[in-house]
Amino acid sequence: MFAIVRTGGKQYRVAAGDKIAVEKLAGEAGETITLDDVLLAGEGDSIADASKVTVSAEIIAQAKSEKVVIFKKRRRHNYRRKAGHRQSMTLLRITDVGTGAKKAPAKKAAAPKTKTATADTQSEAKAAPAKKAPAKKAPVKKTAAADTKPAAKKAPAKKAPAKKAAPKKSAPKKASDDSAETK
Questions:
Q1: So where are the chain's domains?
Q2: Which region holds residue 49: left if phi is over 0, alpha if psi is between -120 and 50, else beta?
Q3: For residue 112, what pLDDT is reported?
Q4: Tens digit of pLDDT at every position of the chain (183 positions)
Q5: 10 Å Cβ neighbour count for 38?
Q6: How far apart are CA 55 and CA 92, in angstroms?
Q7: Contact by Cβ (8 Å): 97, 41
Q8: Where are the alpha helices (DSSP H) in 3-162?
Q9: Is 175 in a helix, a strand, or coil?
Q10: What is the Rg, in whole angstroms, of the alpha carbon atoms belonging to the chain?
Q11: CA atoms of 124 and 60, how far apart (whole Å)
Q12: Which of 38, 9, 44 is nearest to 97 (CA)?
């Protein structure tokens, strides 16, 4: 039996015993995983219902693919850039392509509500006293110890009175005026 599965944005045709390299999947070597996204399944020329088919695989290894070299160049501009990349991948061995029913994700079962349980909670709510508002604290009286705070925190220090500006001196008379009078 074969199946077409989608993982990592790509599609793979798989059968039991095949080995494939896919985009990195969570898990360690030796773990078994289930590929959920089955697009098509069949055997020979007949096609089976893909919703009922499950594909299980074993992780062989977590590895990196071949190096890809990226080289950019602009001629006559002295522009060259070289970079490399190795994509992470997971090597899988397909163990089974089966027609077992898919397992739905496990949902948390809600506890069944009974009439007695709701009646108990209602009676407890009525019996519990209402919460009181917290009591207001009495104002704290100031003591002598409170006055020992540094002066900078109490009040800003007083500034010294500004000095008066000195009167401007008049410019001395020019010597040329004196010499003209004496002649």
A1: 2-71+82-98
A2: beta
A3: 47
A4: 899 999 999 999 999 999 999 999 999 999 999 998 999 999 888 888 888 899 999 999 999 999 999 999 999 999 999 999 999 999 999 999 987 654 544 444 444 444 444 545 555 555 555 556 666 666 666 655 555 555 555 555 666 666 676 667 776 666 665 555 555
A5: 22
A6: 12
A7: yes
A8: 115-127, 151-154
A9: helix
A10: 45
A11: 58
A12: 38
Q: 0.70 exceeded by the pTM?
A: no
Residue positions counted in the chain: 183
How many other C-beta atoms can be found within 10 angstroms of the C-beta atom of residue 118?
Answer: 10
DSSP letter at 132 equals P
Q: How many other C-beta atoms can be found within 10 angstroms of the C-beta atom of residue 94?
A: 21
Sheet holding 54-64, edge to edge: 19-23, 88-98, 54-64, 32-35
Q: What is the pLDDT of residues 37-50, one digit of tens each?
A: 999 999 888 888 88
Measure the N-to-C terminal CA separation of the chain; round to a whole number of Å.
Answer: 136
Question: How many angstroms from the chain centroid is the CA of residue 182?
Answer: 97
